[in-house]
Amino acid sequence: MALRARLLYDFEGDASAGELFVTEGEVVTVLRQDIGDGWWEGETSNKTRGLFPESYVEVIDDTKAMDGGFSAPPAGRRLSVPAAVPQVQLDGNAADENWDDDWKEDSGDNSRRSSAASPQRDVNTLSPSGRQRTSSSSLGRAGTIRKNINRFSSFVKSGGESYILGTVSCKKVRITDSDMAVVVNTDDGPQWAPNPNPYECLVTEPKKMSKFKGMKSFIAYHIRNLNTGILVSRRYKHFDWLHDRLMEKYTLLSIPPLPDKQYAGRYGEEFVEKRREKLQMWMNRVARHPVVSQCQVLNHFLCCGDNEKDWKGGKRRAEKDDLVGAAFFFTVQHPEGLVLETSDQHVEQFGKFTRVMDESLTSIKDKMASHCEKCSGPFKREFERIGASITNLGECFAEDESSYAETLTAAVKHTGLTYHDIGQLYEEQPKHDLLPLIDGIKEYLGLLSTFPDLVQIHKGAVDKVREGKKMLDEGKMTDSELTDVTTRTDTISSVILAEVHHFQRERVVDFKQLMKSFLQEQVNFHQKVIEKLNKSLAMYDGSCSAFV
Predict the structure, then answer these.
(1) CB 222 within 8 Å of CB 232
(2) Smallest Cα–Cα separation from 133: which of 160, 172, 100?
(3) In a 3-state reduction of DSSP, which class is residue 299?
(4) Segment 157-209, tens digit of pLDDT
(5) What is the value of pTM for the model shown?
(6) Rounded distance, CA 168 to CA 322, Å?
């Protein structure tokens, strides 16, 4: 019996791209589940065939309905769907032409889907549970410091808490100089050593492409490293893969979230351009991070061309990287002598700062969004109405054909047109000042969302040192054990403080530029308004010949 599925949401697909146009509650017959990238092929009741997103449907279990008299589950409740989407098997050279789709081909890779099911890496060199090897620490006895950091955080899932407690090691992993992440002391506190070869990227030329003989469409973007000049082509899902790898590797770094994926309208010219702008913002944000900008997975993403073998090799190396999660902390080189109490106060103050900043930015964003709507709506209409009423007065004056009245009549008519034009300026202005500012604010709201967990993790790490001191007083822990816990907590603290410093430096540069650009565009706007009003004003002095 054919598999059937019920739509949970409306899906307005692009017919030219072979996608269905279906509504919530509609039932489709599933023809293929192996399209890939979260897409299925189906047929509607009117025999229209096309693609639709797997996540938009719930599977109807007809077998249960017949055998046990059970009806299909109510809308909103989904039966389980395949956890992994098999790759489409193509014949001949077609498989080589679609090498960029081979992102989930390895049963043992650490894709987002597999990492979500098993977030802890089970490798010989790192055991978050500590059960696969003995440790120099004896914290496994009755007086062990309890685990109390949020067990659902990626930090804990990757073995970070076990690292603090000394139940993991990285002795069998070869760590090279290029793997090291260096924290240096400055007058402003710990900060990351700068990238000796900083660079920027350009994301350009978004182009709609298709595969499977036109059944599947996508947008490809050109990315150029301005230092090396290397040009590569990447799709959104490639960015998504890179983001997942960075999130897995750097559990205590502020990795900016990607712009959301979108189904409806994703090929519209305006959307594609906005997506390009946001991907460039994301790419350069990552490229400006002193540590992330030098990692191998980002280098592979930016440098590997269209050679299938080279790409797959780099992809597998990235997904089998042993220095991810807790193992990354073994690569951190930092100065000794941090005062944990001072560090804790600093991070706690930063936590309060980010909360207030988040509230302030959200308020500004909402006010700016409201003002955008007013500019294209009420403000525009109000100026046009004023202009129309003044123009009507000019038409009335035109009834008097006396020569001495001509100047006044022309000036009044021109004033009406001026107010109409000012209304048009209000409609167009947000794209020059308000919308870029809102985009910058949204980017920072995404960055701020990464810090509450880091602040909480730092507090939990410092609490373990305090608990260790209490256990030392009670004779349940030795001096050397407490020193080990304190040293590892120093590493965690150094990483978070370096992240705080990096964020604050970026914030100062970014918001200076954001506000300058916003105010400059505001000045330009009001100068245009003043220029138009001055032209109308001059006409009342009789200098109408230059303006009519």
Answers:
(1) yes
(2) 172
(3) helix
(4) 566 777 887 877 777 778 888 899 999 999 888 999 999 999 999 999 888 87
(5) 0.71
(6) 13
